[in-house]
Design goal:
Elements: E1 6-12, E2 16-22, E3 28-35, E4 47-48, H1 50-67, E5 77-84, E6 90-93, E7 103-104, H2 112-120, H3 124-131, H4 140-150, H5 154-159, E8 163-166, H6 168-176, E9 183-185, H7 186-189, E10 195-196, E11 201-202, H8 204-210, E12 219-221, E13 224-229, H9 232-235, E14 240-246, H10 247-254, E15 263-267, E16 271-278, E17 289-296, E18 299-308, H11 312-322, H12 330-337, E19 345-347, E20 365-367, H13 375-401, E21 407-411, H14 418-428, E22 431-435, H15 440-452, H16 459-463, E23 468-472, H17 478-497
Parallel strand pairs: 1-5, 5-14, 9-12, 15-21, 21-22
Antiparallel strand pairs: 1-2, 2-3, 4-7, 6-8, 10-11, 13-14, 15-16, 16-18, 17-18, 19-20, 22-23
Helix pairs in contact: 10-15, 12-13, 13-14
The chain binds adenosine-5'-diphosphate and SN-glycerol-3-phosphate.
Adenosine-5'-diphosphate binds near residues 313 and 329.
Length: about 500
């Protein structure tokens, strides 16, 4: 029997589920990935079938194990780390393990009116001080309340202690442990609107405010600890689950942003920029979020976060909605083909706008179209829009933290696009660093599990593994940057008009 030396990282994202197996040097030895269906049952609603997520979890883990030839020697797997799309809500029956309804996804806007009402009642300040979050349908609490109020008998069953609530990590943990463990971690809990990030515990006042029975809640654990062990029937042996974190916090760890002042931006379905603020819980005055970055040995580290709801999703829309590309990577050549944006701007508010606007009812626009505009201009406008939004986040974060942001580390599917990374560096006038391995979310989950199982000792041990792959610096002159930013602000105003 070989020594346990491999880590399985499960990355359950908004559009796909991935399993990557890492060795002790932090190198990926096998990968398996599956895209799954998105459901849009009504305008502004976004749902996932939790059974798809579960089946893909088991499938991708088994496939990666087989690719790495570990299926015949599962004892060489030291641990599993889980990372996940955050805020997405599952409500399930503890006796059967069956969800009562589809998962309501973070992008879902069905509780927009409830959030407007709570804001009008003057409750945002309290919520913000306790959770670091704002009153927006993005977060879990109003989605959970919607399930309790709209699924027949759910509230009664919840009060009887028959149901469990969880974000995707928690649901997968329940299933992986054969229904034995109902827990989550401090980063995922921090995204629910029910968790007090100062006291690091569920907050009774918030539970009352959102009308959530306490019986539903999972236990909240550190990010690197024993969460449970897998049902031996699943993967041929019982594997300890030693790490868990929301995907954006996992990416911060995978990018080794451990020093206060370091930032990363992850470009997947959305874009999420996190600034490590150490043990300081900086409460934003500029509509940024404050969140738990990670909690190790009971000690929380905090981050400021800017959340952009649509990044890669705009590229996916060019492919699936408009049909002007067949693969996301084509946008690189299309953007290069045109000499300028020709004043064409896209504001990709397909599911409203996140930070710093928090405008759930804003909708996407493309402005500045003339008869000269081509598919290439649209592709370029989509890529540019993500960079402008990142710049808006960085401006707000600078004001909040009092520090300039001179460098940011990027990752996620869209960061593979060199044109995008170059434009980002130019428009923000910063250095953009891309690691040699861009699956940093999975990497972060692997580090957490590996620290838990003794493969790596601590964060500084982990930081040595970070390798730069490419670096981009600004090539844009100030007047051009200012002109482009002015054009963006003008387009943005038009998209925001729909919020009123
Ligand atoms: N070369 C590329 N250029 C631009 N966008 C890309 C490129 N490759 C992938 N994407 C976009 O990145 C997203 C996939 O990134 P990923 O990190 O896998 O997302 P998630 O974890 O949210 O499912 C997709 O929305 C896709 O459109
Ligand atoms: O699926 P991603 O990678 O865009 O991440 C989704 C976020 O966790 C939502 O908060």
């Amino acid at each position: 029997m070989s020594k346990a030396q491999y880590i399985i990282a499960l990355d359950q994202g908004t559009t796909s589920t991935r399993c990557i197996i890492f060795n002790q040097k932090g190198e990926a030895v096998a990968t398996s990935r599956r895209e799954f269906a998105q459901h849009y049952p009504e305008l502004g609603w976004v749902e996932h079938n939790p059974e798809d997520i579960w089946n893909d979890t088991v499938f991708t883990i088994r496939t990666a194990m087989s690719e790495a030839k570990l299926d015949s020697d599962p004892s060489s797997i030291a641990a599993i780390g889980i990372t996940n799309q955050r805020e997405t809500v599952v409500l399930w029956d503890k006796a059967t393990g069956k969800p009562l309804y589809n998962a309501i996804v973070w992008q879902d806007r069905r509780t927009s009116a409830v959030c407007h009402k709570l804001k009008a009642d003057g409750l945002e300040k309290t919520v913000h001080e306790k959770t670091g979050l704002l009153l927006d349908p993005y977060f879990s609490a109003t989605k959970l309340a919607w399930l309790l109020d709209n699924v027949a008998d759910a509230r009664i069953a919840a009060q009887r202690g028959e149901l469990a609530f969880g974000t995707i990590d928690s649901f997968l943990l329940w299933r992986l442990t054969g229904g034995k463990v109902h827990a989550t971690d401090a980063t995922n809990a921090s995204r629910t609107l029910l968790f007090n990030i100062k006291t690091q515990s569920w907050d009774p006042e918030l539970l009352k405010l959102f009308n959530i029975p306490e019986e539903l809640l999972p236990e909240v654990k550190d990010n690197s600890t024993l969460f449970g062990t897998t049902d031996p029937n699943l993967f041929g042996t019982s594997i300890p689950i030693m790490g868990m974190a929301g995907d954006q916090q996992a990416a911060l760890i995978g990018q080794a942003c451990f020093t206060p002042g370091m930032t990363k931006a992850t470009y997947g379905t959305g874009c999420f920029m996190l600034l490590n603020t150490g043990d300081q819980m900086v409460i934003s005055k500029n509509r940024m979020l404050t969140t738990t970055a990670y909690r190790l040995n009971g000690k929380p580290t905090y981050a400021l976060e800017g959340s952009i709801f649509v990044a890669g999703a705009a590229i996916k829309w060019l492919r699936d909605g408009l049909g002007i590309i067949t693969h996301a990577s084509q946008t690189h050549d299309m953007a290069t083909q045109v000499s300028d944006n020709h004043q064409v701007y896209m504001v990709p508010a397909f599911v409203g706008l996140g930070a710093p606007h928090w405008a759930p009812d804003a909708r996407a626009i493309i402005s500045g179209l003339t008869l000269n505009a081509t598919a290439a201009h649209l592709a370029r406008a989509a890529l540019e829009s993500i960079a402008y939004q990142t710049n808006d986040l960085a401006e707000a974060m600078k004001k909040d933290s009092g520090n300039d942001i001179l460098t940011t580390r990027v990752d996620g599917g869209m960061s593979a696009n060199d044109w995008f990374c170059q434009f980002l560096a130019s428009i923000m006038n910063i250095t953009v660093e891309r690691p040699s391995y861009i699956e940093t979310t999975a990497m972060g989950a692997a580090y957490l599990a590996g620290m838990g199982s003794g493969i790596w000792n601590n964060l500084s041990d982990v930081a040595h593994h970070w390798r730069q792959g490419a670096s981009f610096i600004s090539h844009m002159k100030e007047p051009e940057r200012n002109k482009k930013l002015k054009g963006w602000q003008f387009a943005l105003k038009q998209a925001l008009l729909q919020e009123e």
